[in-house]
Design brief:
heterotetramer, B: 208 residues, mainly alpha, Four Helix Bundle (Hemerythrin (Met), subunit A), 8 helices, 77% helix, D: 98 residues, 3 helices, 0% strand
């Protein structure tokens, strides 16, 4: 757990020792515990989702949209136990994605923008898990529970699951645009402006998913090269970037209301030495 | 490797006579927010991804693509390209005028840009209506799927471009604002619409 | 003063809601002796077609449809109490807001599937069974936000480091216990019979009793917290 | 100074338009109804398009004044796009004839 060590690096007097020991220390003394809690939840659960969806249930990358009913029954048979166990774990842990949304909303609360931004983002993203993920998992669980069900009905559940997963792009589209606008308007320098534009890129890929409602095969189907693979690359880049930037935000956080202090690299420290600095006192 | 070496290695249009003073020009200045360039490059690579997928699908079924392509009117595509190149030209003039403090001229040029953007918008809508009228829709065949997809996602960038130009007008309008940085950032975005179209034009209308 | 008056009114909707929910629960013929997942499609269809059952299914689910999200104002009161805790950030209150946006929606979806199954019971039994399965799996397995809600509330209480915390520490322990009681229900897909199945001891009785207990206990605790807040603010004013 | 940029931008615009006309001529050289695979048209069209894009980068978007890094990145994109598009096309031609 080297990342835990980097977290400790933000506090000069953090103890070294076992992981549990350090967690207890931070729980007692770290004023940013709430923020780090949300951040670690985000990292742990994004990784868990990756494992559950790609390895345990093996429903991602998505199977072809053109499979016929008997192939779909076969598809369910191949994954029977994985689907049931994997989605049970998903049901167990999904609620713990909420701290992620809370942290993202907090980032907007720290900006010099209206509270309307964090609240709308919080509601949009909390609601988005229901159609975007949980309905998929319910449909596939129901499909796997009774392998002897009429193949046509299993086929319907399969469509329901993947259309719900890929086809509910509106919530993410609007969510990204809300975040983008907040960052562009922000004067507290919580995030760099290029990340606002990256939000726009992510929002545009949500538009690109929409042909999945129309095509059953080819690059625009729900498993297509454009609607799934390219979008997935963008999503992974986007997620990695915002996890990194949120970490920087927590490190820089001073619990004030003015501009967030910059991370102090050597160059910046040298620059500060040349001109009198006012922000240094509040930075630590 | 200096900047000059890479410039000299590639044939260029109209500025051969200015090659001599190139080193003096490389001032290390990025127009507008450097952040916008992150967007431009990200979108550029993303579009390269779309283009490659198009190419890979195309080489598997060249006949279909060639026949469908014959349904498009090359003259409309060329006209579109002219319009966008001209809009890019005027927004570049807007940036230069604003930089020299000639805000009246800058405003005129940004309005010209909006006008050309609007001409492109209308011609694209008419072209789509024409193709749909002939019975070629989004899901008619693979070529038309790509045609509508690429032109529509480009169209979406154009619509966002009008918002961006609105910000530029808002900045230039009042002497209290006039942030040169935002004007240049907006222009960088608008040029992106232009250069992406240049490639889409080549791939959809012209190539064989 | 005016602020907490409104909060008290919202709080006292809880007993009324409780009565409505318990009666809806008792009216639905599939709850008191929960329907078994091993029922065949014909048996499920017969259950919905039974003229004694059909009105009870419809009216109970319509009641749930009206009052299913009735918890949201009460959860909002909980959010306001978290705001009073000695935290540095609003992270925990944001978390609870997120949970309460998503949790009741899921119950509403289960309700929708039951009503769909009852709408045309003459439909193909396989379809009735499909809607019935969707309803029961959604109803039983959708505990993620309830679990997260309890755990996050417990963390928020533990971190409320002031001389007179808003909630006493036992409330946090209690919430963790409730969260643990809800865990087996997530695994409902794995068993067609026994304690883990959707009519089993753990997935049905333990889970629903835990939810009921949580509502009652948190209602009382919340009421005491609001009354104390009124007293404190009354003194201050 | 004012006329300096005016003239330069005008020249750039004229060059871009001229290249567009070359594309138009290339695209109509084999007749409107007889579209056949044609490696020469395709290669020259893609090459012209990318040269146009590079001119837009350097002149309109002022990359020629920009730091070397940006200049390199835009050139890299032009190169990657050229190689991947032409490479795919040529590979397709090789497979279909071979």
């Amino acid at each position: 757990m080297s990342a835990a060590a980097t977290e400790a690096g933000t506090l000069p007097d953090a103890p070294s020792g076992s992981l549990l020991h350090r967690i207890v220390w931070h729980w007692r003394h770290n004023p940013k515990w709430e923020l780090w809690f949300a951040w670690w939840m985000m990292v742990v659960f994004y990784n868990l989702y990756g494992v559950l969806f790609f390895m345990v249930t093996r429903v991602q990358p998505p199977p072809p949209a053109w499979l016929d009913a008997s192939s779909v029954v076969q598809w369910f048979d191949d994954r029977h136990q994985g689907l049931l166990v994997g989605f049970a774990i998903v049901f167990l842990i999904t609620g713990f994605i909420v701290p992620t949304n809370a942290l993202l909303a907090y980032s907007m609360r720290r900006m010099s923008v209206s509270r309307a931004f964090p609240y709308s983002y919080l509601v949009i993203y909390s609601m988005s898990a229901v159609p975007g993920m949980l309905l998929t998992c319910v449909a596939l669980t129901v499909g796997a529970m009774r392998p002897d069900r009429d193949p046509e009905l299993i086929h319907w559940l399969y469509d329901f699951a993947f259309m719900a997963f890929d086809g509910t792009m509106g919530v993410f589209l609007i969510g990204s645009l809300v975040w983008m606008l907040a960052i562009l308007l922000d004067e507290n320098r919580v995030f760099p402006k290029w990340f606002a534009y990256l939000n726009l890129c992510n929002a545009l890929t949500e538009v690109v998913v929409s042909p999945a409602w129309i095509f059953k095969r080819g690059v625009f189907a729900w498993d297509g090269a454009i609607t799934w693979w390219i979008d997935m690359v963008v999503f992974v880049i986007y997620t990695t970037v915002f996890i990194t930037l949120l970490r920087r935000m927590i490190v820089r956080e001073d619990f004030g209301t003015g501009p967030l202090p910059e991370l102090r690299t050597e160059e910046e420290a040298a620059e500060d030495a040349r001109k009198p600095s006012v922000s240094m006192g509040t930075a630590r | 490797m200096t900047n000059v070496a890479s410039d000299g290695s590639r044939p260029r249009g109209g500025d051969v006579q200015s090659l001599a003073d190139e080193p003096a020009e490389a001032t290390g200045y990025v127009p507008g927010q450097p952040d916008m360039w992150a967007f431009v490059l990200f979108e550029a690579f993303l579009f390269t991804g779309y283009f490659v997928v198009y190419m890979v699908c195309r080489i598997q079924n060249p006949e279909l693509y060639l026949q469908s392509q014959a349904q498009l009117d090359l003259r409309i595509g060329t006209f579109n390209t002219f319009v966008l190149l001209t809009s890019s030209w005027s927004v570049a003039r807007c940036v230069q005028s604003a930089r020299e403090g000639e805000f009246r001229s800058a405003l005129t040029n940004v309005f010209l840009t909006i006008l050309f953007g609007f001409v492109f918008l209308v011609s694209k809508l008419l072209e789509w209506a024409h193709e749909i009228g002939k019975g070629f829709g989004f899901s008619s065949n693979e070529f038309f799927s790509f045609y509508y997809f690429l032109t529509a996602i480009h169209f979406l960038h154009l619509l966002i471009g009008f918002i961006v130009l609105g910000v530029v007008v808002h900045q230039l309008w009042s002497p209290a604002r006039r942030s040169q940085e935002l004007v240049e950032t907006g222009a960088t975005y608008w040029h992106t619409i232009d250069f992406l179209w240049v490639i889409i034009f080549a791939l959809l209308y012209v190539m064989r | 003063m005016r602020r907490t008056d409104g909060e008290l009114i919202l709080l006292w909707t809880l007993p009324a809601l409780g009565v409505i929910w318990i009666s809806a629960f008792l009216i639905f013929p599939g709850f008191v002796h929960p329907m078994s997942p091993t029922m065949s499609a014909e048996e499920v269809a017969a259950f919905y077609r039974d003229p004694k059952n059909l009105p009870r299914i419809r009216y109970s689910m319509i009641l749930f449809n009206w009052f299913g999200v009735g918890m949201i104002p009460l959860l909002t009161l909980l959010v306001l109490q978290i705001r009073r805790m000695a935290h540095r950030t609003p992270i925990f209150s944001y978390c609870l807001l997120g949970c309460m946006a998503a949790g009741p929606t899921l119950f509403l979806i289960a309700d929708l599937f039951w009503l769909l199954a009852a709408f045309r019971p003459e439909r193909d039994p396989a379809l009735i069974q499909l809607f019935n399965d969707l309803a029961w799996v959604t109803f039983t397995s959708q505990v993620p936000y309830l679990i997260a809600q309890s755990v996050i509330l417990a963390l928020a209480i533990y971190l409320d480091r002031q001389s007179r915390p808003v909630f006493e520490p036992w409330v946090a322990h209690f919430n963790l216990l409730i969260a643990a009681a809800l865990v087996p229900a997530a695994f409902v897909g794995l068993a067609m019979g026994g304690a883990m199945a959707w009519d089993g001891l753990l997935s049905f009785w333990v889970k629903n009793v835990a939810i009921g207990l949580w509502v009652v206990v948190m209602g009382i605790v919340l009421g005491r917290a609001i009354h104390r807040q009124r007293a404190e603010e009354g003194v201050a004013a | 100074m004012s006329s300096g940029f005016e003239k330069r931008l005008l020249v750039v615009w004229l060059a871009l338009c001229a290249m567009t006309i070359v594309s138009l001529l290339a695209g109509s050289s084999d007749g409107r109804d007889a579209h056949m695979p044609n490696a020469a048209i395709t290669s020259s069209t893609i090459a012209i398009a990318l040269i146009k894009v590079r001119i837009i980068f350097r002149e309109f978007m002022e990359v020629r004044h920009a730091p070397v890094l940006l200049s390199r990145l835009t050139d890299l994109w032009v190169l990657v796009t050229a190689v991947s598009l032409l490479g795919t096309y040529w590979a397709g031609m090789a497979f279909s004839t071979g």
